[in-house]
Amino acid sequence: MKQMKQSRKAGFTLVEIMIVVAIIGLLAAIAIPNFVKSRATSQQNACINNMRQITAAVNEWALETGQQTGSAVNNNDLTPYIQLNSNGSIPPCPAGGTYTVGEVGNLPQVTCTLSTLSSEPHKSP
Question: What band does 2 get if pLDDT is binned at 50, 70 and 90?
C-alpha cells in the first residue's frame, strides 16, 4: 500500500500577518498621542519647578544683600543661591523657553517665554 505524504510547509499566512500589523498599528495610534502629552506635561512641570527655584534664589539674594522692593536682579547674582546645571549656569526651560527674572518683590518674579501658550502654559501657580 502506498502511503501519501502530506507536505505542508509551516509558516504564517498573509491574512495572519495583516491582522498582526493592524493590531500593532492600532496600539501605536493609541499610545503615541498619550506619549506626546505626557512629555509636554513633564516639561511643563520641570519648567515650573525651575521657576520656583529661581524665585527662591531671588528672595534669598534680596534678603542677604538687603535689597529693596523693585531692585533689579542680575542672573550672575543668583548663581550662589541656586543649584547650577552641569554647564555651571541656571537650569534652562526643558521645553526650549527662556526665563526672565523681574524685579525684587514683583509677582511673578520669574517668567518663561512659553507662559503665553494657549494650551499648557508654563506659569507658576
Answer: low
